[in-house]
Every structure is written in structure tokens, then in C-alpha cells.
Amino acid sequence: MKTTIYDIAKAAGVSIATVSKVINGTGRISTDTRERVHEIMQELDYQPSVVASALTGKSTFTIGLLIPDLANPLYAEIARSVEDRGRELGFNLVMCSTDNNPRREGDYITFLKQKKVDGIIISTGISNEAVLQSLHTQNIPVAFVTRDHIPGMDADSVRVDDYLGGYRAASHLLGLGHRHVAVLTEQLSLSSSSDRVRGFIHALEEAGIEEGGPVVVESFSSIEEGRRQTLELLISEDAPTALFACNDLLAIGAVQAAKELRLTIPWDVSIIGFDNTMLAGIVDPPLTTISQPIAEMGRRVMDLIIQEVRGEKKGKTAIVLTPELVVRQSTTFPRKV
């Protein structure tokens, strides 16, 4: 026979109302009592009805997460951090990988609304204001991570200072003596990409490198696209001495292209990435990159949205974290300027 809330209350020696408050995270319940009730729930394998909770307007203890690509280590690491923090706070996670496809984004948001999730964390390039407005109209909490919120939409956000990250990447290459550089970026329609490129160019302009500016190549975010685009850059007559890739996947593709052309990294070409995912330290040579505090971003965005779900905060919060340069073995001074 299925365990009920009455069984939990009897075994724990508390009232049904106390068990209900523990399940819903409400009321002033002592830590000892709360832990005792949770222990009994585990011992008796009690599973609260998510559907019943949703139908009565209560929390389903579920958060949705929209990410562009789970195969990208950045988003895999973000998702893991979000999920771990959610479990600490008693919430489950539903992940949806959208490929930054507007139709898939809309379909997944519809799906998450049907599942009665308590809130949605968005890490994609979604810009469909009608879809986002529907979440606002239905009072579904929304928070953004790795990107800023949509202009005109009141929502929490956690991101790194992408402009500063691009600036620091250029400053590093300039400090090594590079003057002829190129940039490999995701679509510039993504605010994170455009900010990184703007910061990079600003540092070059401050150094007096204005004429022509760097070659900026837009690409889909994959190792193969990074390889393909870098091959074209490096076989040109005006090949750069250094390349800034706006994420680590593109940077690793650039490393593959250089090796394919039998170029030595960093002596023939320096390569710097962005993100500092787990791949950056194991690629050969280890990748110089701009580090995002990935785990912190995941934890903080989950904290924000759960505070919103529980009605514990007033107003919206925009958290901007500082990127750091991590120097490894893929950058050095140029053989010729």
C-alpha cells in the first residue's frame, strides 16, 4: 500500500499539518523536527504527489533549465552546478537543450509550463519576447544565467562581465607583442559574444591598433566549426599571429586546425579561449583562456530563482562576476610582429 502523509505523521510523532509544512518548506519548524520528518519520508519511501501539488497551486519543487547545447562543457558544468544546488534546497531540475533554435525554445517553454515547474532558468539566446512575456503574464519566475536579461523584462540574472573578459584577452596578447590578431566568435546576435568582441577591440584601439581592426569571423559553436574557420584564417596570405576564440570549443577547433597545418602552438600561432571548461586543461597544449566562475554562477542563479519561488525577495537582482585570465601553454610572444 502506498505510504501517505498520515503514515509519515504517525511514524514521526507529529501532526499532519507539521508534515505538510515540512514538505512545502513553509512554517516555523525546528531543524530537528524537519530532519526527523525527512528521515521518515526516506525510510517509508514517501513520494509527494507533484500533480496534486500543482493542481492546488502548491510548489512542485521543480525548476526548468534551458541551455543551448548540453554537449558544450560550459553548459554541462553550469547544469551540474544548478542541479547540485537545487538538490541541496530540495528542488529537482528539468533540462532542455535548445541549440539556440527559436522553435525549440518555444516548444520547451510550453512543455515546462505544462509540467507546472516552479520557475525557469534561461541560458540560451532566446529573444522571442512573446514567449517570455507569456511567462511573466502567468507569474512564472524567470532567471537568466551566462547572459543578461532581455531589455524590458524584469528578471534576475547572473553572468560574467563579457566585455571585461574580451578586454583582458586582448591585453594579454598585446602584452606578448602581438599586433596582428583575429577573433573567432559565436553569432554576434548573442549579447555575450558581441560584448566579448567589443571589449577585445577596445583594448586594441587603446593600444593604437585601429587601422583595419582585427578580422572577426562568426561561427557556430562547435569544435569542427572552429577548426574549419581557423584553417581559412591560417592559410591566408595575411595569417594572424594570434587568435582569440570566444569560447573554449572554438579554441580547441583552432588548435586542431593549427596542428593539421603542422604549425607549432604557441610559437607559430598563439590561441586564447574563453570559459575555462574542463577541456581547457587537458587539450594539448593546455589552453590559455578567460575563466568564468562556472560553479558559482550555477549556484547563485538557483539561489535567486528559489528565493523568488518562495517569495523571499523583493525586486530583481543582476549579478555580474569578474572573469580571470588563466595563462597556460597556448600563448607566447610572436616570432615576428
From TrEMBL:
GO terms for molecular function: DNA-binding transcription factor activity; transcription cis-regulatory region binding. InterPro entries: HTH_LacI, LacI/GalR-like_sensor, Lambda_DNA-bd_dom_sf, Peripla_BP_I. It comes from the Bacteria. Residues 3-57 form the HTH lacI-type domain. Keywords: DNA-binding, Transcription, Transcription regulation. This is LacI family transcriptional regulator. It comes from Paenibacillus ginsengarvi.
